[in-house]
Amino acid sequence: MKTLEELNAVKEQYEGLVNFRRIGHAEDAVIDKKYRLHVLVCAGTGCTSSGSLKIIDKLNEELKANNIENEVKVVKTGCHGLCALGPLMIVYPEGAFYSRLEIEHIPEIVKKHFVEGNVCKEYLYKETVLEDGSVQPMNNTDFYRSQKRVALRNCGVINPEDINEYIGTGGYQAIAKVLQTMKPEDVIQVMLDSGLRGRGGAGFPTGLKWKFAAASVNEQKYVCCNADEGDPGAFMDRSVLEGDPHVVLEAMSIAGYAIGANQGYIYVRAEYPIAVERLNIAIKQARDAGLLGKDILGTGFDFDIDLRLGAGAFVCGEETALMTSIEGNRGEPRPRPPFPAVKGLFAKPTILNNVETYANIPKIIMQGAQWFASMGTEKSKGTKVFALGGKINNTGLVEIPMGTTLRTVIEEIGGGIPNGKKFKAAQTGGPSGGCIPVENMDVEIDYDNLIAIGSMMGSGGLIVMDEDNCMVDIAKFFLEFTVDESCGKCTPCREGTKRMLEILDRITEGKGKMEDIDELQELAAFIKSNALCGLGQTAPNPVLSTLRYFKDEYIAHVKDKKCPAGVCKNLLTFKIDPEKCIGCTKCAKNCPVDAIIGEKKKVHEIDTSKCIKCGTCLDGCKKDAIYKE
Amino acid sequence: MAIKKSAVPFKGTKEQEAKLHEVIAGLKEEQGCLMPIMQQAQDIYGYLPIEVQKIIADDLEIPIEKIYGVATFYAQFRLQPTGEYRISVCLGTACYVKGSGPILDKLKQLLQIDIDECTPDGKFSLEACRCIGACGLAPVLTVNEEVYGRLTLEDIPGIIEKYSN
Amino acid sequence: MENVTVKINGMDVVVPAGSTVLEAARIAGIDIPTLCYLKEVNEIGACRMCVVEVKGAKTLVTACVYPVNDGMEIFTNTKKVRDSRKRNLQLLLASHDRQCLSCVASARCEFQTLCQEYGVEDAGVYDGARNEYELDTSAAHMVRDNNKCILCRRCVAVCDKVQGIGVIGSNGRGFATSIGQAFEMDLADTSCVSCGQCIAVCPTGALYEKDYTEQVFEAIEDPEKTVLVQAAPAVRAALGEEFGLPIGTDTQGKLAASLRRLGFDKVFDTVFSADLTIMEEATEFLDRVKNGGTLPLITSCSPGWVKYCEHYFPDMTENLSSCKSPQQMFGAVAKTYYAQKMGLDPKNIVMVSVMPCTAKKFEVGREDQCAAGEGIADVDIAITTRELAYMIKRAGIKFNELPDEEFDNPLGVGTGAGVIFGATGGVMEAALRTAYETLTGSEPASLDFVDVRGTDGIKEASYEIAGMNIKVAVASGLANAKKLLKAVKNGEADYQFIEIMGCPGGCVNGGGQPKQPASVRNFVDIQKLRGQVLYGLDKANPMRKSHENPEIKTIYKEFFGEPGSEKAHHILHTSYVKRGVNSNI
Ligand SMILES: Cc1cc2nc3c(=O)[nH]c(=O)nc-3n(C[C@H](O)[C@H](O)[C@H](O)COP(=O)(O)O)c2cc1C
Ligand code: SF4
Ligand code: SF4
Ligand code: SF4
Ligand code: SF4
Ligand code: SF4
Ligand code: SF4
Ligand code: SF4
Ligand code: SF4
Ligand code: FES
Ligand code: FES
Ligand code: FES
């Protein structure tokens, strides 16, 4: 593609194709002349692992068998968000939303729906089928109603392996606009005005970051993309990379133009093979189309992008560590200043932004700063994607406007807590973040509010916990993670987090003293203000926030030697209820340490001094006679 | 302390080496090429033993320690090959008190390897794990996906025998 | 340079723009403790000992790497700062093998000192899991004890950046991080050149030279043995530091006196064999120039450099002078010429050398260093300046109160040319003095060849001597050597004569010299101060050319005949091994 005209020609050609799949366009969708139906099958990581590729094979087979392979277009898309219900399939023009598909369903769906035109309601996502039997668009369901898809706008809509579909959605128009009508400083001004803040964790204003890098004078500068997504349980960035890779390439080019860089690197975790593959395809297609490389759109602007794969180190998500890693070293953070905007990758001025941050940018350029700034709260604009997980009914990926309350996310979008259990807390920010207790459920989610209540936005992991979770155990879990992932360079983090973990271990084993709680607090404060990088500076947060809201649980462990949630093994005793036990001897036979004594048909008893609390007996007793205390 | 070479004799072929030299030659001039080279080397050989790290060190003219430092920093790089059969002994509490320690020792003795090592013929590698949730069968070990429980020391030679051919 | 004004603990201080907080505080007369920082070598901000409070900063700030800006308000001594530093030390202590009483570093350990200054009253508060490491005693010159390592990485940075070698580095990560060699191989199996620069910068007792002081005492006490000692030029420029004398104090006289009081049978001076080296090397040089031998000729006095050449530039070992180092020449002469002259059986001579150097410990065990016959090493025991200081202290000798004494004859006579061997450029200058006179038959206008003096890493000069244009280069520190040799190999430079010293600044800054803490190294140019001692001795010496040394004249007359003679070759020259890098894997 040498010119804007050529780009626009492709856009016109494919616009209809992709608009055919917009929800709400179902009625007036006549634009695609070739295919009668578009069948979008999710091929994100979630659905792939639940078997969506086999579904696609089966679909193709059945379409052939019914001789309609030329009337129905099957599209492999990225994630739709409701991964827990995968494999997912949406059929347009109806917008019929099939969930939990099984291979056996396919022949029936092809025949009844695709050939005969009758949607198979029994296989649809049940929320889309109303009581009166009518089918509503998925946008009206609880899960999607309060969401607003900006960063994820193309995920699940287009084929990520086809650049033309991206162009059909208006893709690469933003870089064209920037190159032809804007000066670098105009671009930066738009970013500043939009109020976009980094989605990778810290929430630093993107425009400001670009401004600093633009101000550094150097022949060589770099644009980097943080696709390392190390927070366990978070997969927002993965979904963008898998579902809409070109948006990242386009946004990085825009950044390159704004700061004066002509080379970009995407640092992506090697644990995301599908994302890596789609990025490779996207880069190749963009290069072939002339949208990456030399003289883009005939404007004289050069910009290219290379991939670098991580190798399993959480700390490499930290910006200086990421750069050290790209340079081919142990991914150890460097002290700042100098800041990357002055001296970053290969000692050149560099900006680093997160995948989701980039995903917002082309749209901001096209729709304007005001449009973006109109969403969200005063200091946090736009939307945020969260990976909703833990004790919640609708686990999956959600994108909400900043300022949505946690209650909406959990009760409406998430569908509440399973099994009628009580909500205890939500954890955001992963190993750097903290817990939000029930009393803060109505806080509007934005960067500053979360900080104020002792948590943080983080990259978007949102783990829900119920009454069965022990908060000391949760704190320990996260600390174990940071201890494992500490790079070991600086003393406070290398030595300090390890000692905090040892204290927590003692507490959960019932060997804690009240002074230990003070010591935890002091060590935490020390590590936060003395560690070299963000990993260490935030590592104590899960401990601090659980101490803040759930100190009574700590005290119960220390003083009463009890774990109120019944999680910490060493504080439990297994007992047999003599009323219930029928003396079947099963437990005694199964106990690995022979801790259960009792004769046949007589009440059994557990020798607590021998019991190692493995739980085998409890799981096995048919009479529910065994309980823990 | 002698050089901690892998117990598995290095079985790299001429073709593998040629391929590695080629990979290095192709990337050598690029800035920050070390990790991509190591990643591809691991694809070629399955792991990064001293012999492979030496080739990289010599071709790039950098200290082998630098490569080793990188290899031991990232979880993904392996210094030991995994065997065809991965024997994993549970050292969780239940298994431990029922004698999984001696079982592990027996395995080490019979296979002549340590934890996280692989036998010279590439057949077996040995690892220890924490509770796999089969405490009722303690002590347990797994060979690839297969679980063996209620083990006694006498069972061990038989299990190895089963996979030896 | 531009200045900025900062407020430190409430006081306005004007400092050059671009200074670090550490430097600014120093200007204000305030010391900030450091552990990992080594100026221009290790600026990684890792240990977090140097934290200070800066108004407006979210966290504490590390003074060592944080640049000041105008109007910055810094607090170096608040409760928060003191508590942080103390807690930092306590955390390090929990992972530390706290065996001060039996630790070589005790009383001069930077870590120990800080624990004391910060009132660490409970070293065991955070005791828990601790990594345990085997000692690595494989190398000839040193011991590595990771149990005492605080992971400051100064050694790593010096080995990699200053020496360009990088055989040690950080391995593993997190709590399991440790310093070591690839695949935990023995240090002896690596291409370590034994320079000991890592020891010199280690703030703790994790790295130390192999100690042979007891062997020396035993030899002295053995009535069967004649124990001779030689002391290298650089030793006299630094030994006083071990006894609290200022850096740059000349202790030549006290050195001789202390050795004598330790009971050595004869107290000799390596400066003598330095002069001998010049005779041989200058002859070899002129021979190569005249007869088309391999050029450039490169000096071979520094065993650290020689080992480096063998490992990293094996195809350039032909360029090395075949002369043994002065230490080895000395031993060779002592066990042949001197033994013969005194009627001693060389087998009963114990030759001890006191060196600024750890590589000399490796050198004494090299092949082809047995002039008096198979199995009779030229030098038996090489000890460092530091070890000599231990001996002096152990023997109860009040060093600072010693009178100045002379070395014994005949092997204690040396010239000013020989004494400057201890500083970078010294060998070159000494050689030029003799070569000039040999070629022209007259003395140069000035004996000071200032172009090759000074502590720059690489120096070059060219001289018109007897119609010949002689281009020379001098390098010290092996990273500099590498740069220079690459240029030679690529044909970008053509020199006829090159001097290379393994240690930056030459032997005055050798790996066996008294250790100076980073708080001194970062602010004082110890290479220069120690070097000045040697140039002062040269200036004060009436004999400033090696060939003027009367004992040198005698030895050639009585024993060798002439420089480069067959006998001289047999006794004073040696051969090299092409070792290569990683060739043992
Ligand atoms: C320990 C640590 C891990 C991080 N991991 C990630 C990550 O996986 N992905 C990410 O985008 N940002 C991560 N960050 C934040 C980045 O350092 C950086 O702030 C961000 O990528 C900048 O992009 P943004 O301004 O667009 O958010 C991490 C930070 C720390 C301290
Ligand atoms: S805080 Fe932790 S991860 Fe960060 S530099 Fe220090 S040790 Fe490494
Ligand atoms: S399994 Fe249950 S019922 Fe049977 S003996 Fe045990 S406790 Fe009693
Ligand atoms: S919990 Fe496990 S160890 Fe304890 S009694 Fe039950 S089976 Fe035995
Ligand atoms: S290294 Fe220092 S602190 Fe450690 S034992 Fe030795 S003297 Fe004591
Ligand atoms: S310093 Fe203290 S502990 Fe050490 S020897 Fe003296 S009194 Fe004992
Ligand atoms: S002695 Fe020299 S070469 Fe050897 S490890 Fe130390 S600094 Fe490196
Ligand atoms: S050995 Fe010494 S210099 Fe090296 S990291 Fe350890 S304490 Fe620092
Ligand atoms: S420069 Fe001197 S101290 Fe250093 S290795 Fe060479 S001879 Fe030894
Ligand atoms: S992967 Fe299919 S919906 Fe998320
Ligand atoms: S402890 Fe071994 S299976 Fe649970
Ligand atoms: S961090 Fe400043 S001296 Fe170590």
State the main characteristics.
heterotrimer; A: 629 residues; alpha/beta; Glutaredoxin; Rossmann fold; Ubiquitin-like (UB roll); 5 domains; 5-stranded mixed beta sheet; 24 helices; 18 strands; B: 165 residues; alpha+beta; binds flavin mononucleotide; binds FE2/S2 (inorganic) cluster; 4 iron, 4 sulfur cluster binding (chain A); Nuo51_FMN-bd_sf (chain A); NADH dehydrogenase (ubiquinone) activity (chain A)
Commentary on this structure:
The complex is a heterotrimer of chains A (629), B (165) and C (585). Chain A contains 24 helices and 18 strands. In chain A, α8 (184-194) packs antiparallel against α9 (206-215), α11 (245-259) packs across α14 and α18 packs across α22. The mean pLDDT of chain A is 94. Chain B folds into two domains: 14-73; 85-164, Glutaredoxin, CATH 3.40.30. Chain B has helices at 14-27, 34-45, 50-60, 64-71, 93-97, 100-111, 155-163, and strands at 85-90, 117-118, 124-129, 141-143, 146-148. In chain B, α1 (14-27) packs antiparallel against α2 (34-45) and α1 packs parallel to α3 (50-60). The two termini of chain B are 34 Å apart. With 585 residues, chain C is α/β, with parallel strands linked by helices. One iron/sulfur cluster (SF4) binds next to α4 of chain C. Chain B: Pfam families: 2Fe-2S_thioredx. Chain B: GO terms for molecular function: 2 iron, 2 sulfur cluster binding; metal ion binding; oxidoreductase activity. Chain B: Belongs to the complex I 24 kDa subunit family.
- Helical stretch tally of chain C: 19
CATH architecture field of the largest domain in chain B: 3-Layer(aba) Sandwich
The quaternary structure here is heterotrimer
Taken in chain order, the helices and strands of chain B follow as: HHHHEHHEEEEH
Bound molecules: flavin mononucleotide, iron/sulfur cluster, FE2/S2 (inorganic) cluster
Second rung of CATH, namely the architecture of the largest domain in chain C: 3-Layer(aba) Sandwich
Global structural class of chain C: alpha/beta
Beta-strand segment tally of chain C: 17
Radius of gyration of chain C: 25 Å
Largest sheet of chain C: 5 strands, mixed
Number of discrete helical segments of chain B: 7
Give the number of DSSP strands of chain B: 5
Q: How many discrete domains of chain C?
A: 3
Shape of chain B: elongated
Which of globular, elongated, flat, extended, rod-shaped describes the shape of chain C?
globular
